[in-house]
Design goal:
Distance between the termini of chain A: 55 Å
Helix content of chain A: over 70%
CATH architecture of the largest domain in chain B: 3-Layer(aba) Sandwich
Oligomer: heterodimer
CATH class of the largest domain in chain B: Alpha Beta
Largest sheet of chain A: 2 strands, antiparallel
Number of domains of chain B: 2
Helix content of chain B: 40-55%
Structural class of chain A: mainly alpha
Number of domains of chain A: 1
Radius of gyration of chain A: 20 Å
Structural class of chain B: alpha/beta
CATH topology of the largest domain in chain B: Rossmann fold
Strand order of the largest sheet of chain B: 7-6-8-9-10-14-15
CATH superfamily of the largest domain in chain B: Response regulator
Distance between the termini of chain B: 16 Å
Strand content of chain B: 15-25%
Order of helices and strands of chain B: HHEHEHEHEEHEHEHEHEHHEHHHEEEEE
Order of helices and strands of chain A: HHHHEEHHHHHHH
Strand content of chain A: under 5%
Number of strands of chain A: 2
Shape of chain B: elongated
Radius of gyration of chain B: 22 Å
Number of helices of chain B: 14
């Protein structure tokens, strides 16, 4: 008997917990990716990240309603893919606009961006409330995305979990390709390493910043669209994700994409394991204590990029 | 807060309140006498007789306050209460008002922020001199305004079901306290569904923790059954996969869930995704999901769950049918009405009945007249105010349908006595 369970149960516990941890990991990566790109590249702490996610969630809600109202019933089963694309475009476009009207004036004042984006998050919340109502909206999902695949009596694989994992894999791969195989990625990495020098060799740092911010926001939008499967869609739902997101990004080391992934893995597995043997609240407390402890030893986070300032 | 003796005003309150009231009272009287007399007051008694403490009462009108969050996180929940209170007020006015006076409401926004609630309630009581306030939703907001209402002798009608352990001279609790909701529900599921083992879940704050404490004591000490797990999640938690695994392994007969807010949505969606079948296999009893919450959760994710509360929109009685149709006429065909919304609707009516019994708007007289007040036109049926300021009410069990409504399966034969300080459960 371990933790009150019989030996026979332990096998399925391990399998199910590993899977639960993997889902949490995918969710964390998806949440943190957009923030990590923006934070790492521009040093802007985007407090409105959660709201960009919820914008994506609301786009999903709108798309599902549009599909239900105007398209034949068969089309509904694939609406989610269109919704994610729309979510990316909407959040990305808003990101572009916000960068132009607000963020670019504040690049030299990191603390002010914190305050400004926090204000932005309040504005967006109230806008959601005025447009979509204060209550949470229910997003209908196509039938095939719900439920689970039974492997054995106690082992079941959630379909939406698989979906989030696949999506995370896809987006992470796309971002890695963009960052390390494209011309834009090269420029981004150059700007991260040394901003004045990149400017001096003719890289348009303004443009890079704007695109990076838009991309980060767009990914947040896709994450939000995906999270309609597992969470709530309401004006303030973005706040539910923001703390975990920052935790992952800061713990991973702000400027490293791989750090973000590694930290998401560590935090998610720790949390879901502790949650299993203790309880939800204790898992949060212990994870936070662990992260704080490690950050005291390694203030830069898990992975540090060598950057000239 | 329960340890604080109710109705003991602080020293500064004792010193300053009467004089200020006297001044404002005379001001209100002279202002009122300048106004032309309107037909509304023709039937009512003289203002000087029914308002001796300087409240905002004229020959034509009486002011009351509505204090809920219409912005911030809690706006999701509190919007329904505001709508119900406005509906009740407009209906009372259509019937000739209270003591011949039309009710005017002054609405303030608590903004989901507890100090703001306290500040706004002070404004309503001190500056606006309202005769009663309908408001608050979370226990935290109620605790924040409690000293203000006790100091300035206001009356608060509080609509939400809550954890109990409170009994203020200045508050009327329209929702059920914990034992009313919990005990009848547990008894039912044990008797009708043969449940033997329970897994208690909740969001991590006072209401779910107190409620689960009562549930555990009732299960273990009175029903002699077993609790196989008890667990809490931070407010706003969105990941429930680990607990789903635990539930699958411990195989409780009943999941007893008191999860609130956005977490609710995540919880039921993930439960469905984890293959826990509430329709055929797993029994789940909740006291925190009303029709309002199902809007966000989605009916197909929660279909089959049982809920124990005092009101469901689908209740089949003439009062409720009239109420639902009036509510939809005022606030739109798509509105849904949950337990708290219905309770909020009772506030203005209970206050009206108490004022008429007291033949006065003076808060102390209204409070004194309140115990024993019967509301016969309540949508939930008949309710009565107990000496402890809570309501006698029936508890009902509903089962969630895919369209977001509940089928009412059971109601207690008699009204359940409110017992905010239950012996043997603490």
């Amino acid at each position: 008997m371990i933790g009150g369970y019989s030996i026979g149960d332990l096998g399925s516990i391990l399998a199910m917990q590993a899977f639960a941890g993997l889902i949490l990991f995918s969710v964390f990566v998806l949440m943190a990716l957009g923030l990590a790109i923006i934070f790492g590249q521009m040093g802007v702490i985007n407090m409105a990240h959660g709201e960009f996610m919820i914008l994506g969630a609301y786009m999903t809600y709108l798309t599902s309603n549009l599909f239900k109202a105007y398209l034949p019933a068969g089309a509904f089963s694939v609406y989610f893919f269109f919704a994610m694309i729309l979510a990316f475009i909407a959040s990305g476009a808003l990101g572009l606009f916000v960068e132009w009207i607000m963020i670019r004036h504040l690049y030299r004042r990191p603390l002010d961006t914190l305050l400004a984006t926090w204000g932005l998050s309040l504005i967006m919340q109230q806008a959601f409330r005025s447009i979509f109502g204060a209550r949470e909206v229910g997003v209908d999902l196509p039938q095939w995305m719900m439920g689970s695949l039974p492997v054995s009596d106690t082992i079941q694989v959630q379909i939406n979990g698989l979906f989030v994992m696949a999506l995370t894999l896809l987006i992470t791969a796309a971002v890695i390709v963009l960052l390390f195989r494209s011309r834009w990625g090269l420029q981004v990495r150059a700007v991260v390493a040394n901003r004045p020098m990149s400017g001096a060799v003719g890289i348009d740092t303004r443009r890079i910043d704007r695109l990076t911010f838009a991309l980060g926001c767009g990914i947040a939008g896709v994450a939000g669209a995906a999270f309609t499967m597992i969470g709530s869609t309401g004006p303030t739902a973005g706040q539910l994700y923001i703390v975990d997101t920052f935790l992952v990004v800061v713990f991973g080391g702000a400027q490293s994409l791989f750090g973000t992934i590694a930290s998401a893995l560590t935090i998610s597995q720790t949390q879901s394991a502790i949650e299993f043997f203790l309880s939800g609240s204790m898992a949060k407390v212990i994870t936070l204590l662990g992260v704080i402890g490690l950050l005291m030893l390694r203030p830069q986070g898990l992975f540090v990029l060598k950057v000239r300032r | 807060m329960a340890s604080k003796t109710p109705s003991t005003p602080t020293r500064s309150g004792l010193r300053s309140a009467p004089r200020r009231k006297l001044l404002l009272g005379t001001a209100a009287l002279s202002a009122a006498s300048l106004l032309p007399r309107r037909p509304f007051a023709a039937s009512g008694p003289a203002t000087s007789a029914i308002n001796t403490t300087g409240l905002a009462v004229t020959d034509e009108a009486v002011n009351v306050g509505i204090l809920h969050s219409v912005t911030g996180t809690m706006a999701i929940s509190e919007t329904g209460s505001v709508e119900a209170e406005k509906l009740a007020i407009s209906q009372i006015n259509a019937q000739g008002g209270v003591l011949g006076r039309k009710i005017n409401f002054i609405q303030e926004d608590g903004a989901s922020d507890w100090p703001t609630f306290a500040e706004k309630s002070r404004k309503l009581l001190v500056d606006d001199k309202v005769a009663a306030v309908f408001g608050c939703w979370t226990s935290a907001s109620r605790k924040a305004v409690l000293p203000v209402f006790e100091q300035y002798h206001g009356i608060l009608y509080y609509p939400t079901f809550y954890e109990g352990l409170e009994e203020s001279h200045n508050v009327f609790y329209e929702g059920q306290e914990a034992t009313q909701q919990i005990i009848a529900g547990l008894n039912w599921i044990v008797k009708e569904k043969g449940a033997k083992t329970f897994y208690l879940l909740g969001s991590d704050y006072i209401w779910p923790r107190t409620s689960n404490k009562i549930a555990r004591k009732h299960i273990e000490n009175f029903l002699k059954l077993q609790v196989v797990g008890e667990e809490y999640f931070p407010l706003g938690n969105t990941e429930f996969n680990s607990v789903m695994n635990k539930i699958k392994l411990r195989k409780p007969d009943v999941i007893y869930a008191i999860i609130v807010g956005g977490s609710n949505v995540a919880f039921y969606k993930q439960m469905k995704a984890a293959g826990i079948d509430l329709v055929n296999k797993q029994k789940l009893l909740t006291i925190s999901v009303t029709e309002d919450e199902i809007l966000g959760i989605g009916g197909e994710n929660i279909v089959g769950a049982y809920a124990a509360m005092k009101y469901f929109q689908s209740l089949d009685n003439p009062n409720n049918k009239a109420f639902v149709s009036e509510f939809k006429k005022m606030w739109g065909e798509k509105s849904v009405i949950g337990d708290v919304t219905q309770a909020a609707y009772e506030g203005p009516w209970l206050w009206k009945l108490a004022c008429e019994k007291a033949q006065s708007f003076d808060t102390e007289k209204v409070i004194a007249a309140s115990p024993g007040i019967e509301m016969k036109n309540a949508p939930e049926g008949y309710v009565r105010i107990h000496e402890n300021h809570h309501l006698w009410s029936k508890t009902r069990i509903g089962r969630a349908r895919a369209d977001g409504q509940y089928d009412v399966l059971y109601e207690t034969a008699d009204l359940v006595e409110p017992n905010p300080f239950p012996k043997g459960y603490q």
